[in-house]
Amino acid sequence: MELTRFGVSIDDGLLSQFDRLITNKGYTNRSEAIRDLIRDSLVQTEWESATQETIGTITLVYNSHTHELSDLLTRLQHGHYQAIISTTHIHLDEENCLEVLIVRGRGQDIKKISDQMTSARGVKHGRLSLTTTGKDIL
Amino acid sequence: MELTRFGVSIDDGLLSQFDRLITNKGYTNRSEAIRDLIRDSLVQTEWESATQETIGTITLVYNSHTHELSDLLTRLQHGHYQAIISTTHIHLDEENCLEVLIVRGRGQDIKKISDQMTSARGVKHGRLSLTTTGKDIL
Amino acid sequence: MELTRFGVSIDDGLLSQFDRLITNKGYTNRSEAIRDLIRDSLVQTEWESATQETIGTITLVYNSHTHELSDLLTRLQHGHYQAIISTTHIHLDEENCLEVLIVRGRGQDIKKISDQMTSARGVKHGRLSLTTTGKDIL
Amino acid sequence: MELTRFGVSIDDGLLSQFDRLITNKGYTNRSEAIRDLIRDSLVQTEWESATQETIGTITLVYNSHTHELSDLLTRLQHGHYQAIISTTHIHLDEENCLEVLIVRGRGQDIKKISDQMTSARGVKHGRLSLTTTGKDIL
C-alpha cells in the first residue's frame, strides 16, 4: 500500500468548522477524517450501483397542496409496485407530508426510483438510504 | 331478566347456510348465535359513538388510476392530521392500492373520518375497525 | 325462494337496545336487520375460509411489558414472513402497543396466522379484517 | 473569504477509486469534491445537534433470533413513545428484520434514541437520517 499526498483548497471558515467537528468526533488528524468521508461516499455509491439485492428507504417531504402531486407520486410508485414493499405516510401538519418508502431490489434500480420521486416538482426534500438485507452479515 | 321471543322471516337457502356456519362454530341453537350477533353489533356501534378515546384502523381498497382520487384522499386525511397517526400504503398491483390508516380519537370522530373516505368515488371497499387503547384492560 | 320463519329467545334489555340501534340505522323491521347480520357473518366466514387470494389486517393490542411477548410475536411473524407484507407498531403509552399487520394470502392461511397471534398470552385484543385485493371488483 | 490549503495522506488505491467516483459525478477537481463532503458532514451533524424540531427515520437491520433483542428494542422504544410516531417492521426472511422508525423531535434527542438502538447487541446495521418538517422550506 503506497501513500500519496494531495492538497485541498478550502476557505478558512469552513475549515475551522470542520476542525471543530472532527475534534468532537475524536479524530486526531484531518487526513484520517477525510479518508473516512471518502470511504463513506464510496460505500454509498457502491450500494447505489449494486446489482445484488439491497433494501432501502426513500424519504420524501412535500406539500400535499401542490396540485396533483399526490396523484403523480402514487402513479410513479405503482409503476414500481414490485420493488416497493410499503409506503408510510405521515401528515405532519395541514400541508406538509412525510412519506417513507421501504424498497427492495438492485441498488441501481432503487436509485432510479428514488431519483424520479425526489425530482418531482413540489418535493421539498428527498433522501435515499440503502442498506443490506442482512444475509451477508453474520 | 325477562325472556321475550320474536320471529324472524328468512329465505330457506340463507337459513341453511347459517345453520351450517353456527354448527361449525359449535353453537347448539340458533337463538344463542343470533344473540351473539346482536351483541357484536351493539359493541361495534358503541365504539363508533364513543366519546372516550379509541384507536382504530381504516382500511381502503381503491384504484389509483381514478382521476385525482389520491389527491382527494390526501387532502381529506390532512384535514384530520391530528387524529391520523400513520397511513400505510401498499401498491397491490399496477392499479389497485391498499391503504391502512391508524387513527386515534373519539369513536364518533373516527367514524366520521372513515365515512368520508369510504364514500369517495373510486373507493372499492372500506372498513373501520375500532378497538381500545388498552388502558382500560388490565 | 321459500320463506321460513323461526323464533329467537332473547332477554328484554338486549332486545330493546337492539331495537334502538336498528331504528337509528333506518331498518323498518327486525327480520331485515337480522338477515343483514346473518349475511355479514357469512361473508366474513367465507373470507376466512377462502382459498383465493385475500388481503387483510390483523390488529393486536398488547402490553409490551409482558415477559418475552415481543420476542414471541416476532418469532411467530417470521414463521409467516412471506404472507406478512408489513407490520406497523405504535407505542400507545409507556406500556401498551398497537400492532397492525398487513397480510396477503389465502383467507384460511391468514385466519390461522391471526389465531396464533391473538391467542398469545398478554394480547389484550385481536381482530382480523379481511378484504379483497380489488382485482375482482371493477 | 480567505482560502487555506492543507494536505491529505491517502493510499493509492483509495485515491484512484475516489477519482473515478468524482469524475463520474462531474467534478472537475478534488478540492471541490472534498469541500462538498465536508459540507454534507457538517449539515448532518447540525441536524443531529439541533434543538429545533426535526423529523427522521432510524433504520435497523437485525437478526430476530437474537435472544430477547425484540423485547429490548420494544422496551427502548416505549421509553421514547412520544417521539416515535410509528415503527414499520419488515420480515426480510426467516431470520432477518428491517425496522424503520419515524421519529419527530429535537435532533439531539433523536440522535440519542438512535444511538441506543444501533448499539444494541445483535443489530447488524443502523442508520439515522434526519430531515426538516418542511415548515421552514417555502
Overview of the structural elements:
4 copies of one chain form a homotetramer. Chain A is an alpha+beta fold. Chain A is 39% helix and 35% strand. Chain A has 4 helices and 5 strands. Chain A has helices spanning 12-24, 30-48, 69-78, 107-118; strands spanning 3-11, 53-63, 84-91, 96-106, 123-131. In chain A, strands 3-4-2-5 form a 4-stranded antiparallel sheet. The radius of gyration of chain A is 19 Å and the shape is globular. The relative contact order of chain A is 0.19. The model of chain A has no long low-confidence stretch (mean pLDDT 88). Chains in contact: A-B, A-C, A-D, B-C, B-D, C-D. Chain C binds chain D through residues 64-65, 67-71, 73-75, 77-81, 84, 86-95, 97, and chain D through 64-65, 67-71, 73-75, 77-81, 84, 86-95, 97.
Highlighted features:
homotetramer; 138 residues; 4 helices; 5 strands
List the helices and strands and how they pair.
The structure is a homotetramer of 138-residue chains.
Chain A: E1 3-11, H1 12-24, H2 30-48, E2 53-63, H3 69-78, E3 84-91, E4 96-106, H4 107-118, E5 123-131
Antiparallel strand pairs in A: 2-4, 2-5, 3-4
